[in-house]
Amino acid sequence: MVKLLKKLTWKDFILAAVAFVFIIVQVWLSLTMPDYMSEITKLVQTKGSKMNDILIAGGKMLACALGSLLAAVCTSICASKISSNFSANLRGQVFHKVQSFSMEEIGNFSTASLITRSTNDITQVQMLIVMGLEVLLKAPIMAVWALCKISTKNWQWTASTGVAVVVLLSFVCVCVAVALPKFKKLQSLTDNLNRVTRENLTGLNVVRAYNAEGYQQKKFNDANDELTKTQLFANRTMGTMMPGIQMVMNGLMLAIYWIGAYLISNAQMFDKLTIFSDMIVFTQYAMQVVMSFMMLVMIFVLLPRASVSAKRINEVLDMPLSIKDGTKENGIDGKKGEVEFRNVSFCYPDAEKDVIEDISFTAHKGETIAFIGSTGCGKSTVINMIPRFYDATKGEVLVDGVNVKEYTQKALRNKIGYVSQKAVLFTGSIKSNVAYGDNGTKGFTDDVVKQAIETAQAKEFVDKTDGGVDAFVAQGGSNFSGGQKQRLSIARAICRHPEILIFDDSFSALDYKTDRVLRDTLRKTCADATRFIVAQRIGTIRDADKIIVLDDGKIAGMGKHNELMETCEVYRQIAYSQLSKEELA
Ligand SMILES: Nc1ncnc2c1ncn2[C@@H]1O[C@H](COP(=O)(O)OP(=O)(O)OP(=O)(O)O)[C@@H](O)[C@H]1O
Prior knowledge:
Elements: H1 2-5, H2 10-45, H3 51-99, H4 103-109, H5 111-118, H6 120-151, H7 155-202, H8 204-209, H9 213-239, H10 241-266, H11 269-318, E1 339-346, E2 356-363, E3 368-373, H12 379-384, E4 394-399, E5 402-403, H13 409-414, E6 416-419, E7 428-429, H14 430-434, H15 446-455, H16 459-464, E8 472-473, H17 482-495, E9 500-504, H18 512-525, E10 530-534, H19 538-541, E11 546-551, E12 554-559, H20 561-567, H21 569-578, H22 581-584
Parallel strand pairs: 3-10, 3-11, 6-9, 9-10
Antiparallel strand pairs: 1-2, 1-4, 4-5, 7-8, 11-12
Helix pairs in contact: 2-3, 2-6, 2-11, 3-6, 5-7, 6-7, 6-11, 7-9, 7-10, 7-11, 10-11, 15-17, 20-21
The chain binds adenosine-5'-triphosphate.
């Protein structure tokens, strides 16, 4: 928690200092009120007192109350400003850090947990800061000031207040100790609920198609019940605190009156009024002392959960990055567009064996390199090494003659146009999705966007859509078909005019005719770009300059279609399973 609080800016500290001044004013006014009360008590009990004097003392008391209220409002304004700024900054930092995570780090946390950490966990810390500033500063000042005021009055009363504070603190400590483990568990259970809800929402069509509503409902109920049970236990434990504190306060009041009654009965006649007046004032101060500790208790309610949240936020912020930036911006002259894999092997984090082993090949500028092989043989893994979604565990990947690890990630990715296996569109317009990101130039002109849409064979449906390139794209591109989404994703990659184009099984949702026309157009319009195509269909890749056949993470064959038909058994099997001998001839 302390580590997170170090992120407060100097502006926050200035605001905290202003809040501190308001708190002092608030405490001073609150503790001045009992003095006027004492004066009023004395005036009421003294024969011949004037009504005007009582009204003046009452008016001063009222002014103190209003002043204290005003100071409390100003403190709250400062506290909420500090906490809102702090949480906004923290959310920004967490978002920025998560953006720099590779797939490895994201896998370590899980997406659901990262969402909880960026939202719910930060809210817990924010709540603590608001309360903390108001209470943590105010309560000790109030307690010490009030104790100073009462310590000179009467030792029996002071001692009884001391006993009440000790009982109160012991009680609070026991409650917090019982509830703390449950608070720790609460955040991970929130992650779990988040995960189940997300999974259900993203797979809603599948859930419905398989009549799995009952199964999903059970999964949700289990997660929900466990969270509710834990919350109930923690809140019940903390809930017993308030009545307990109330009991201590009432007991203290009783003790003060009991001691007061004893003192008054044993006092001389002329002292009785002074003791009575002192007793009234002391009760007020004693209540302020106990109230201060009660306010601190509110912090104890929030602190355990907030400190667990702070730890979870720090875990994200302190996570070392597995993909580190290099320094190079440019490759070697004369090697532009060249991609080379040198004895590359890769093992996923926590996996037992390498998913790809000893992969070596070179792709020259303007060539089309295709990957084919059975499901799960490692095709996507190989091409994911080029934009450094993962780094090779052995060997080297070189782009333009330079190891990808030596480039700044921005420079490397400026060279690449990547189309993922699952088409991803963002909320916005067709144009904002195609002219997406930054390729090191000053944005994309309308003509470049239109050209990319045309090359990706998306012009026909874009023109037909209301609004054309400005047509609205819903979250995840849900208002477009699978094939349309793929074509827009392809247009996005082409729009960057990259040196290297990567298509990870990106033609699978296209009909055969569009697939062929798109490949022909790509060959003409992106002739300079080195193209990597992962495909399942032989038809998509048979014209490639180099086809790499992968089998269980290893290269089973490499060459042109005709060569592989003669030399590679795995390729032949794939080919014959898709096309007839006549089609392949
Ligand atoms: N994030 C991951 N963590 C652990 N293992 C993974 C991860 N992603 C993929 N794998 C494993 O690595 C292997 C290769 O996966 P990859 O996605 O590269 O295959 P692929 O050939 O592209 O498959 P497909 O044709 O089905 O897309 C698979 O066995 C898969 O289970």
